[in-house]
């Protein structure tokens, strides 16, 4: 039974890697963005489904806000809307329906987050309030496109009070990258582009045509820079293991040598393919 399971897992991983390589072989940047996003959504959606289904099988189904958040990390907007409606929150469902689209939602939601932090920040973010309030705030941050603050807050809460973490645990690297690709609002007044140590031919290469979303190159560069910074400055990372495989090649503070860390992640060949679009090699 174990061998059959291992064989099935290896086959599934091989199919995933092959699908990724096909996605990266598209001839134009818009095609690469679309095909890679589709591959990443398939991977992230499968993880989201597994989180929801595993909790239900264990007799501890996710709460409404937990399921909404988990569905959003897999870009399951319809599933997230359904979960919100199931919990009686029509207003939240209407906000979710606009997520990831080129609308003013990010700007409006950031104003809402700023207002909540000003009025009741200590209760919502200070570890003193209802965990459900903290989870709702995290959903608002996701809808506002403030992925940096979202992941940092998750890391802090995971180290102090796991009940405040939406979905119950930190995200894997694929869903973290997906958050930057699908939801991040690339406000250049708050983030540095290109990140330190990375290059691009021209600034516009880092954005989708509307400049309200990252391009694949922009999302990958910025995610990589934030991952490195978090591992150097935080006691707990904002991404759970396994890390992308290229980061497994060298020791990082607090995580030992490569042989001591869990393996897995994106294959080196795939990363070289992404590197051809302008990502500076580490």
What do these coordinates show?
The protein is an all-alpha fold. Helices cover 58% and strands 0% of the residues.
Count of beta strands: 0
| SSE series | HHHHHHHHHHH
Number of helical elements: 11
* Cα gyration radius (Å): 19 Å
Given helix and strand content, the structural type is mainly alpha
Q: How much is the average pLDDT?
A: 75
Shape: globular
Strand content: under 5%
User: Largest sheet, if any?
Assistant: none
| Unreliably modeled segments | 1-6, 248-282
Q: What fraction, in percent, of the residue positions are helical?
A: 55-70%
The end-to-end distance, rounded to whole angstroms, is 41 Å
Write the layout of secondary structure elements.
Layout: H1 2-24, H2 29-57, H3 64-73, H4 77-86, H5 90-96, H6 105-125, H7 131-144, H8 147-160, H9 173-182, H10 216-233, H11 268-275
